Amino acid sequence: MAIRVLLVDDQPLLRTGFRMILEAEQDLAVVGEAGDGLQALDQVRALQPDVVLMDIRMPRMDGVEATRQITGPERNGPAKVLVLTTFDLDEYVVEALKAGASGFLLKDAPANELVQAIRVVAAGEAMLAPSITRRLLDKYATHLPSGEEPVPDTLHTLTDREVEVLKLVARGLSNAEIAADLFVSETTVKTHVGHVLTKLGLRDRVQAAVYAYESGLVRPGAQ
Fold first, then answer.
1. Whole domain around residue 54: which residue ranges?
2. Are the beta carbons of 81 and 100 closer than 8 angstroms?
3. What Gene3D superfamilies has UniProt attached to this entry (predicted)?
4. Which has the higher per-residue pLDDT, 133 or 146?
């Protein structure tokens, strides 16, 4: 079945452009549009999309609060949120990720990247491209821990291999890339990622990446 997509942006021309791109793909179906966060909530309830393509700065209700309500404990449906951003709004991107977004994408990303990001998010993975993550974190380098602070006690619940996996997740690597880096199977990686999320009380790998940077386990620019 086609992936059902809801477009949320306060600029009609952008929504039209996204619709044209997505409707050219056989496995994607645009089921609706919204011009602000409040409309998005109504459309999510009514249309039950699989993925919400979410702008951040909008009238009435911004994308951060809309994301929080769509993905929060009171959520009414399976929708996952993919945030669209321009890099003059980085602080909102971080807040959207904390609120439960499954990833973020530049508004000027090539069409094939947009299509692939929607497929990745719909499949339950996180869209945390290393190049975008690096640019975002470079902007935030002065606001993130230096790495010299003591790590949170919760990190001590992880095994050494789980810490390795968490660091690679924070760098934006996929399961396949982590498996190749650590010379293990993808199934093993998925198991480790699941343990990390459970032990740290995190929703998904996006939150795991944010946690790794905020805790000082990983530093911007570190390899």
1. 1-136
2. yes
3. 3.40.50.2300
4. 133
